[in-house]
Specification:
The protein has 537 residues and is mainly beta. The protein has three helices and 36 strands. A hairpin with a 5-residue loop joins β31 and β32.
């Protein structure tokens, strides 16, 4: 028995060696022999979950006690900065000093010794004090004298850490032409009192200026044609705090537009909602009374070119806004005055269903409409102002009709892919939403240009509902998209995948609530057939 097994093994080895030699002879005679075969390669493209917060951008989803969802959204209409009420003047000092007679002045002689109280122009505002956040004082001296001059300039009413603002500089003499000296001094952190020396006025600033001939120089002859010019200006001031009476002023806003990003991913179709709660909020963080009139608010859908004007008792009505209050707290020194106006009784549902991407508005604001009722105690802190917002609360109970959503995902096809003969894209979707959807895929190249479209004949089926229109079971859908050979080449250059889905609610006559656990689980993969040639190995 053992001998028979041995003979069989020897016969098998000899047969294998003979076959191998025969194969070598065949391949040595057929130099052009290149066998090939087709291979399947499955490439995952997208594996994601899409919820309501992925569709409605820049919003906050609020879960109600019954786990249904309401959408909360705030959009700024306009902002009014306090520096629009008044502005700081540029010029503090601008003087030209000269002598009426020709005189010879010895070294160390003081030519100019002047204290002034300048009244600055703040328009209709009366400013008492300010704390400077940032900015500069531009100091410029034009010297026509043939000797150097020591100049000292002070603003005694400007203090920082107990020290007054002071500039002390040596100005070189004029030689063949006028000598111009310029310097920019940082004035950040200074407290400036504009009440004057007796603290009884406003818009006043105290200054002093002395000019002394160089004590180490020579006697110098000064003629009436010689002069010393000084220019001092504020530059790019920002304040931390200002107090005074800011005047009785009127300001108009618009017509202008502000963008709304809520419906950015919705590009077509329409929907109906059961109700919308809308509040127009005006928040005043300035220590100034005001009245506001909204002339119009219009919802604009730039994709459909449809505009809807807000119909509300608010439009054209003067709304009085009281001033903010100082708290004395370092972290939160201001308690704003907040006014809320209910817009829910108007046509706000029509505005929302228009899916606006812009709000057009015009408004008028009156500052201190009753005059100086605060007796000079108007105030403002840095970056505080008067702002208005639209606040929406939308219970997501809706009917969707061909509501078209678009989203984009990165994809990465290998650059080594060659010899693609054909392919298939598979969509595997688990749907927890009470929506059906038709799907279209598009591919973008690295330059964000469209490569081509692939249309799906299949439909994502809606989840199963009970008699109360609540989802009880998610439904899986499988969609196959054939890629013909003539379109496979474009996939090599594709870098991004666009999914466009057209949604319809399971019921077109009944508003359906959306709940917190509703979502789409999406898997997208591609299966390609390649012609593999042995010469590639």
């Amino acid at each position: 028995m053992g001998n028979k097994i041995l003979l069989k093994n020897i016969f098998f080895i000899l047969t294998w060696i003979f076959g191998f030699i025969l194969l070598l002879n065949i391949t040595s005679c057929r130099k052009d022999f290149s066998p090939s075969w087709e291979a399947d390669f499955l490439i995952p493209l997208v594996n994601t979950t899409m919820g309501i917060d992925d569709i409605l951008t820049d919003s906050i989803l609020y879960v109600n006690p019954d786990n249904s969802i309401s959408l909360l959204y705030r959009n700024n209409i306009y902002s009014f900065a306090a520096d629009s009420i008044f502005s700081f003047p540029d010029t503090i000092t601008g003087n030209v000093y000269s002598l009426p007679l020709t005189v010879t002045v010895p070294p160390g002689q003081t030519l100019i010794n002047l204290q002034e109280v300048k009244k600055l122009n703040f328009g209709s505002a009366n400013i008492f004090i300010t704390d400077i956040k940032s900015g500069f004082v531009n100091f410029k001296i034009v010297n026509d004298l043939k000797e150097g001059v020591i100049c000292n300039y002070k603003i005694p009413s400007a203090l920082k850490n107990g020290n007054i603002f002071e500039i002390n500089e040596f100005i070189p003499p004029a030689s063949t032409s006028t000598n111009i000296f310029e310097k920019k001094i940082d004035i950040s952190g200074f407290h400036i009192d504009f009440r004057g020396p007796n603290f009884l006025n406003s818009n006043r600033i105290s200054t002093s200026f002395t000019a002394t001939i160089n004590p180490n120089g020579n006697p110098v002859q000064i003629t009436p044609q010689d002069s010393l010019k000084i220019y001092v200006t504020f530059d790019n001031l920002q304040f931390n705090y200002v107090k005074g009476y800011f005047g009785q002023t009127s300001h108009s806003f618009g017509p202008d537009t502000t963008s709304i990003n809520l419906f950015t991913k919705i590009i077509n179709g329409n929907f109906s909602v059961e109700k919308v709660k809308a509040i127009l909020t005006v928040e005043n963080s300035i220590g100034v009374d005001a009245s506001v009139i909204f002339n119009h608010l219009t919802a604009i859908n730039s994709h459909t070119n449809q505009s809807i004007n807000l119909v509300s008792p608010l439009i054209g009505k003067s709304v009085n806004i009281t001033r903010a209050v100082e708290t004395g707290l370092i972290d939160s020194p201001v308690k704003p005055s907040v006014y809320n106006y209910d817009l829910s009784t108007g046509n706000i549902i029509s505005l929302i269903e228009n899916m606006p991407d812009y709000i057009s508005y015009s408004a008028k604001l009156e500052a201190n409409p009753l005059g100086n009722v605060s007796s000079g105690n108007d105030f403002v802190y840095y970056k505080n102002g008067l702002k208005s917002y639209l606040n929406f609360e939308i219970p997501l109970s809706l009917i969707a009709n061909n509501l078209t959503i678009v989203d984009t995902f990165d994809v990465n096809f290998s650059n080594d892919i060659r010899n693609i003969s054909k392919g298939v894209i598979y969509l595997d979707v688990e749907n927890f939403f009470p929506f059906s959807a038709n799907v279209e895929l598009s591919f973008l190249n690295k330059n964000e240009n469209l490569n081509d479209n692939f249309y799906c004949s299949g439909t994502i089926l809606p989840a199963e509902l009970n008699a109360s229109y609540i989802v009880i079971t998610p439904v899986k859908s499988y969609i196959k998209i054939d890629i013909p050979p003539e379109k496979t080449e474009i996939l090599k250059n594709s870098k991004r995948l666009i999914i466009k889905a057209k949604f319809n609610t399971a019921s077109q006559t009944h508003h359906i609530k959306l709940f917190n656990d509703y979502k789409l689980n999406i898997k997208i993969s591609a299966n390609f057939k390649y012609t593999v040639n042995t010469e590639e190995f």
